[in-house]
């Protein structure tokens, strides 16, 4: 899952565009829609309008803390990296987290509440 945001800054007539990309690697033994429903529920407001479950998803936590005006799962793009057996999930997840450096420059550095 990744998200890109373009930020423009202007200084004395010059303009720079920076593209920030946040990646996240996650695993599931459930169907993809079940996994995404877990993330989606963390973006929902309660009857008082508060986000009470955002700490249960690294994606929601990132949006809540860094981009509160864009608190939506729809700002992320989803892709399947690899299909493997349940026994290989931890190893493959860790391999892609390391390969994509998402524990350093991505959302896998965020610790979620389970």
Tell me the layout of helices and strands.
Blueprint: E1 2-11, E2 14-23, H1 32-41, H2 58-66, H3 89-100, H4 102-105
Antiparallel strand pairs: 1-2
Structure, briefly:
The protein is α+β, with helices and mostly antiparallel strands.
Please report the total strand number as a whole number: 2
> What is the string of helix and strand elements?
EEHHHH
Tally the helices: what do you get?
4
Query: What gap, in angstroms, lies between the N and C termini?
Result: 20 Å
**What is the alpha-carbon Rg in Å?**
16 Å
Strand order of the largest sheet: 1-2
Beta content: 15-25%
- Shape designation: globular
Largest sheet geometry: 2 strands, antiparallel
Q: Low-confidence parts lasting 5 or more residues at pLDDT below 50?
A: 4-20
Which range best describes the helical content: under 10%, 10-25%, 25-40%, 40-55%, 55-70% or over 70%?
Answer: 25-40%
Estimate the mean pLDDT confidence.
79
Q: Which structural class matches the secondary elements?
A: alpha+beta
What this model shows, in words?
The structure is a single chain. The protein has 114 residues and is α+β, with helices and mostly antiparallel strands. 31% of the residues lie in helices and 18% in strands. It has helices at residues 32-41, 58-66, 89-100, 102-105; strands spanning 2-11, 14-23. Strands 1-2 form a two-stranded antiparallel sheet. A hairpin with a 2-residue loop joins strand 1 and strand 2 (14-23). The protein is globular and about 40 Å long. The relative contact order is 0.19.
